[in-house]
Amino acid sequence: MKNNIIQWKDIKSNQKVATQVCIIGTGCGGATLGAQLVKQGIDVILIDQGGYYPTAAFDNNELNMAGKLSGDRNLATSSDNGINLMYGNNIGGASVHYWADSYRTPVDRLQYWEEEFGIENHDVNRLSKYWDELDVRLNVHPATDAYLNPMNRLVEKGARNLGWKGHRVPQARKNCQKSGHCMQGCAFGAKQSQLVTHIEDILEAGGRIYSDLKAEQLIYKNGKVESLRSVSIDRPSGKETSNYVEIKASAFVVAAGGYGSSTFLLRNGLKKQLPALGEFIGMNPSPIVHAMYPWEVNQWRNIPAGFGIDHFRLAEYDAKGNYLQGGYLLMPNQLQPATLSALIPVVGDEHFNWIKNLSNLGGTIGWIDDVPTELGRIHLSGKDRKVDYKIGKTTSLILKDLLRKQVMLNFAAGAEKVLIGNNQATLLHSIDDLGKIDNLTIDSGSLMMAAPHPSGGCRMGKDPKITVTNSEHKVHGFTNLFVADSSVFPTGVSVDPSYTIMAFSYAAADSIAEYLA
Amino acid sequence: MNAAIPTIQISRKELLKSSLLLGVSFSLLKCFPASNHKKFLILSPSNIRTLEKFMEAILPDTDSMPNAQQASVARRLDEELYFVDESISADFCDALMFVEWYPLFSDIPTSWKKFSNLSLAERKLIIQETCQNKSGIVRSAFSNIRMIGYLMYYGNPTTWSGIGYDGPFGGFPEKDSEQRAHYREVIQ
């Protein structure tokens, strides 16, 4: 099985290889797709520009693991430096550093995509069959009491006190050791990432996986891709080598993730042919608040989000279309100390007063459901990728409402003081200070936000003027080029997208198998 | 943070002046590399000095915690920046240079000196005030250095006992990636 992983040190000269399906990317989209194809006896090659780090290479160290697993070591930002972009760069993709939340796509969102964008054959009946299978393979189950750390229990208590609807978050785990290192990759292999599930399935079935191999150029003629030219990366230096691998295949799939897939196709010069390429980018911007509790919360251990609040998942508007409230999920936060300290927006002794009480320092995070009319875009400036995401008017209102609800939640859970993660470092000593939020300026860079859930850029739909792929995941104007990851989503999913990505990859596998037949 | 702290704005003229000055100084620094140039791959000696003076101003005033040098902030940051996209590392170095020259053009009442020559109290003042600056450029430069500085500092094991962190679960020994080993080799 190990022989099927080809790493940088195995590529010492230019190579030519052939397969039935070549998949660019090994995260939730690519690995799930590959596993489905090999199950049907279809030969696959998956490539990833990141390294192959088996679980035995994990050490739970925050900076070390970001270096192994995270794209640009988590230091990339949106064009205006306002939002931190998070994505994977390893075999298994972002699933290796994600929180293992495994939500089925809400029915209202699937219906919206069908009605608004003409997406076909991705309805809840079809996808449910896939999720049922995935539930077994990834051992998905609601978080149980034993896996709620004190911060999770406080969020559950706060929601109950406020009368807000919440739920135990479905988890992809087996024999979890409660380490709290989901974002560092899980050294116990308990989190059921793609690395320990579908990647293993692919290798067992004889599929080949190239790590440290960067997809560069699609060679195509008359709408048919003939081969992919890819360059080997020297893993120690991170630099490109002079060794190329040319892959010939009957079908090619771009599954390089929400930030990667449209970037790759843009670099292949397809913008003119596909005007919607790189457009309609969502990213679930995630503002945080810190809260000091009079007891230990030890938020850095056990699972990150065992209890979530979906009471405000959908935004509410009045009859005139004015925003009222909602449009986000609310979760307990979990960060190890380096990242946590970076997000405390004060300095000096004031900063130390927060971080030195680490055991009592908790907080929450919210993922906003990107507003469909205020999405961002990816474009190129020379060879550099730029991710533009401006905070629009409605987005600003949603963010402010989300901060308000996070403050209410933490005080309802017993917090002594709450600090908003904004550049103004807004400090609230009681719920009576809630009015301070009304006066906040919410614009680009005013909130410290991460964006771990990109979507769009290769939007799926009927109209080639405003979409990039059709409902068979096929790129408009091509006969054998497909996309299978979150970049095909027309808008955000309104919940963690990983399970939607996987179910869509099942659908993509059916389309590709049909094409090959 | 005190909401009464006045915010400042950098005018377009000031920004142009500072940009011009930054360009000249950048060229000069390129022409005269410092003696320990080989030891760092991304950060220049000037960058390191600015960073360490910045860290001194944002770290707690207590003997119970290590300083930035003891926590290897510049060294680890240099390593991290070596492996990210060049546009990211270049932006960060530019931000350090911006911070270094910013006091000469700002309205904040400090001595007319570069950042690393200001007194500790003046550096603290300028960092406090720029955190809330209305100019996105100013805020972004100072804020990014602050955030990444803390990330490197509290990512270092020497800081953990001082904040009650029991370390990575399981107490595994650090397992170096090929990149960590490569960096160590290259800086020799």
Would you give an account of this structure?
The complex is a heterodimer of chains A (517) and B (188). Chain A has helices at 28-39, 62-69, 107-117, 124-137, 150-162, 198-204, 261-267, 337-342, 348-355, 393-412, 498-516, and strands spanning 5-6, 15-24, 44-47, 83-85, 140-142, 166-168, 170-172, 208-210, 213-221, 224-234, 239-254, 279-281, 286-292, 307-309, 316-317, 323-325, 328-332, 361-368, 376-381, 384-388, 417-420, 427-428, 449-451, 481-483. Chain A is α/β, with parallel strands linked by helices and 517 residues long. In chain A, the strands form six sheets. In chain A, strands 1, 2, 3, 8, 9, 10, 11 and 24 form an eight-stranded mixed sheet that branches. In chain A, strands 4, 13, 17, 18, 21, 22 and 23 form a seven-stranded mixed sheet that branches. Chain A has a three-stranded antiparallel sheet with strand order 12-19-20, with helices on one face. In chain A, helix 1 runs parallel beside helix 6 and helix 5 (150-162) packs across helix 10. The longest helix of chain A has 20 residues, at 393-412. Chain A is globular, with a radius of gyration of 22 Å. Chain B has 188 residues and is mainly alpha-helical. In chain B, 53% of the residues lie in helices and 0% in strands. The chains are: A alpha/beta (517), B mainly alpha (188). The interface between A and B is large, with 61 and 59 residues.
How many helix segments of chain B?
7
Rg result of chain A: 22 Å
Secondary-structure content class of chain A:
alpha/beta
Show unreliable segments of chain A: none
Helicity level of chain B: 40-55%
The Rg value of chain B, from CA coordinates, equals 18 Å
